[in-house]
Design brief:
This protein is of the alpha/beta class. It is 35% helix and 23% strand. The strands form 2 sheets. Strands 9-8-7-10-11-14-12-13 form an 8-stranded parallel sheet, sandwiched between helices. The chain has a 6-stranded mixed sheet with strand order 1-6-5-4-3-2. Helix 4 links the parallel strand 7 and strand 8. It is globular and about 55 Å long. The model has no long low-confidence stretch (mean pLDDT 95).
């Protein structure tokens, strides 16, 4: 059995190859039960959460894998100076049930998340898009520029974060990689000047206003993963052609749940899922002036595809 830490897992997930792997995985599909949420009571602290995300390849596949991502969220760890979230990915042979690998789940999640967004942008962002605005400066947000460089010829990245110091550190890191970067003071101006907006925040009130969006912008909403979280306002949703990663986004993402609950939006307004885009395999933007918006909540299919890619690359590397 293979065991890989965070650095080793990341090495086997370069974004160009990962984006191609996800494209094939969304075309193929897999068996993907509804994710399991369990509440864990903790003495004298906020309750913790156990999240289980299983998926396995269909029986007709020649090499079949079964995987499960195990995530624990313990809010009380903040007071212990420990990470609040821990994630592990377990990969098995789907023919025999034998365990094959234990992988670093945070790396799997982070890299497949931004790679899926880049994949969607490959169908939705203008082909000449070169300016990227990143909202957020955390672990996932820090991966966004490299992922988007796999699908578009970026020449500038602007970074905004509620903490200016975090934004400055991320911008410096991006600049050190050879890509021009700057921090944003005026968010409205930055939104109006960019080609692609990718948000990976924990915002509960909208930070992107539809009235700021110029024609031709592509909006990528990564961060909001509960009905109470929100990164874009109603106007942004209504002005855009909306795409989602999976149907779960209609029930889990506040950016869609809230306008659905008020009657401003419905699932009939969704143009396609990411699987639909990949199976059509054609540029989905109607014109250079269309505003497109992609909302993701994550999927076990992408986890399985990334974990399979890591395992097969690690085995090949060991044998070579």
């Amino acid at each position: 059995m293979i065991g890989l830490d965070a650095q080793e897992t990341a090495i086997f997930l370069p974004f160009k190859e990962l984006t191609d792997t996800l494209r094939a995985a969304f075309v193929e599909g897999c068996e993907m039960p509804v994710r399991h949420h369990h509440t864990v009571d903790v003495t004298d602290e906020a309750a913790a959460t156990l999240l289980l995300m299983p998926a396995w390849h269909c029986a007709h596949r020649s090499s079949r894998y079964l995987g499960i991502k195990i995530v624990t969220v313990f809010p009380g760890n903040a007071g212990r100076n420990l990470p609040g979230l821990t994630s592990t990915y377990m990969l098995y042979d789907a023919q025999t049930g034998i365990q094959l690998a234990t992988l670093e789940g945070n790396v799997i999640t982070g890299r497949r998340t931004v790679a899926a967004s880049a994949l969607a942008a490959d169908y939705l962002a203008r082909r000449d898009a070169r300016r990227l605005l990143v909202l957020g400066a955390g672990r996932v947000a820090s991966l966004i520029p490299d992922a988007y460089r796999a699908v578009r010829p970026l020449d500038h990245v602007a970074v905004w974060d509620i903490d200016g110091g975090n934004a400055e550190r991320l911008a410096q890191s991006i600049a050190a990689s050879g890509l021009a970067a700057s921090i944003v003071d005026d968010l409205e101006k930055a939104v109006a000047e960019t080609d692609i907006i990718s948000a990976a925040t924990l915002a509960t009130t909208p930070i992107i206003k539809g009235e700021w969006l110029r024609p031709g912008t592509h909006v990528d909403l990564i961060g909001g993963f509960t009905p109470g979280m929100r990164e874009a306002d109603d106007d942004a949703i209504l002005r855009a052609s909306v795409f989602i990663d999976t149907d779960e986004a209609l029930h889990e993402a506040g950016d869609l749940v809230q306008p659905i609950n008020t009657g401003l939006f419905s699932e009939k307004n969704v143009r396609s899922t990411l699987a639909g885009l990949c199976r059509e395999n054609r540029f989905a933007r109607g014109s250079d002036t269309e505003i497109t918006l992609y909302k993701a909540v994550g999927t076990a299919l992408a986890d399985l595809a990334a974990a399979t890619m890591v395992y097969e690359a690690a085995v090949s590397n060991a044998e070579g």
